Structure formats: structure tokens, C-alpha cells
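Batch manifest, entry 17 of 40.
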Amino acid sequence: MAVPHDRYIAPAWVKYGRGGPFDLDVEAPWRRWREAKLAALPSDPGALWVEIRDPRALSRGERARLLELCARHNLALYRSRARDEDHRVPLALGEQLGLGRPDLDRNPCADPDGVTPLAVARGGERAGFVPYTTRAIDWHTDGYYNPRARQIHGLLLHCVRAAAEGGENGVLDHELAYLRLREEDPALVAALMHPQAMTIPAHVRDGRVLRPARTGPVFSVTREGRLHMRYTRRARNVFWRDDPLLRRALARLEALLEDPATPGLLRHRLAPGEGLVCNNVLHMRTAFRDPVPPSPGRLLYRVRYFLPVGGF
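Output type: C-alpha cells
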């Protein structure tokens, strides 16, 4: 049955999804997509892992498996022997998966080549942001504060050094979150697709606007018909549309993220040489403790892309 949602979704934000599985007015494509998605859900999380000799030079089989997993599950995990502090590891891996350097999100905290070292910062630009501390990072997708034309669709994380304790990552395919919410009540999805659902306020420093406020939906559909998600569970510096249905949708989403039994929800502490390749799925990080100096602390490399894995 069609769900009335004109008051929740502006047509300009959903035109690419019309007639497809993410169109709330049609059932057959959604049902077919849902059945295929659930049938592909692995019963063993180990099926999402790929053993890689060298991320800088993938074999044909390694590359094919990473692309297959990302196409079916929006994410893949890998183990490799690459444990040196070499930016070419994530950059070369991305290039082999269709993610070219022109498509990199060179955010202000990234190095000039687009790689962001995730480590505890003692000073400088990075020191004021949670990813560069030992504190936990709640569930989110990357780049939720970016403008619509520069949304993050691909993401790589590569572990060089693990923390002494903690630093576990949680991941959940955003399509599975959508699926569960729509199963419960399509109106919840409609509320999350409202073009004014979530606002990230402007970043102002010393009276200067470094980034304007960004307002947009949580769920949207790309030109290619892919589902995209921008979300943060942060308690501060985010404004949600004043709508009881949206509040219920957010509560249900939070419940999914908190329930360890949610299908597809994975938690893993990346070890040196391990990494995550994904289409900017939901993810989080627990708090951690670094080794006592002079031992070096936790270090992950992060690379963000404006294209999904596969480059399309």
C-alpha cells in the first residue's frame, strides 16, 4: 500500500529513486530488493573478510572479492602484511577499487595527499576534534556536514598500530538500517528523508564562519539509484527537525544500533595490517588507551571519497 508522504519529502530529493526499491509509493521493487538483501546476508561475519598479500598490489582474485563484498554488503574487511607508515597503502588500494585521487575528500584535517592520520593530536588543527583524541566516537557516517554535492560515498580505514586497550569499531550496512525501519513503518523512513531532517550548525571560530550550516535528509537516493545516508548520533552541534515522527524514527534507529543482535551489526578491533573498505556505512569507535610513551600510539589511516567503491 502506498504511504502518503508528500509533507515529508520534497520531490527534488527523491526524483532519482522513483520506481526503484527506495520509492515509498511502490511495493514490488522494494519487496524484490528486500528479499535479495536478506538472502545475501552472511550468517558468518568471517565471510566479509578478505586475505590480502599487499594492498598496494592486489591480485585479480583479491580485487574481485573486495568489489563483490562491497557491491552486496557495502563493506569488506581485509587482513594484510602492510604495517608500515606508508600512505600509499590506502591510496593504492583505493585506486585499484575505482577510487581515484581526484575523487578524494581533502578535508582540513587531512594531509596534502588526502590521507588523514587518525592518532591522538597534542596540538594544531586536529586537536579540537574527537577523532584525534582517545574518546569514543558515536555512530555516524562520514562527511555528514558536507554539502550535498560533496557527500562521502566511499571510505577506507587502514590500521598501522592498534591501541593498548580499546579502539574497537562497530559497523552496520546503512541499507540494513533502512530495511529494518521500513519493515517496521515506512513513515519512519519518510521522516528521515525529509530535506530538513538534520542540520549541522555552522562552524564558527573567532567570529569567522569556517563552514556554513548544512541541512539535509538522513536517507537520500543518488542519481545512480543508490541509497545514501548522512547521520550522526552526536548529542551536541546537531539540530533535528521538530517532528514527532522523526523523533520516533531516530529512537528506533538508535535501538537498532544499540542491539548487538541486530542482523549485520559487526564489532571488531582492527589489528595492524587490517582495514575496512566501505560505501560509507554506519560506524563507531569505542574509547581507547594508548601505550605509555615513548611507545607510539594508535594510528589508522582514513581516506574519504566522493564516489562509492567501484567508482560508479
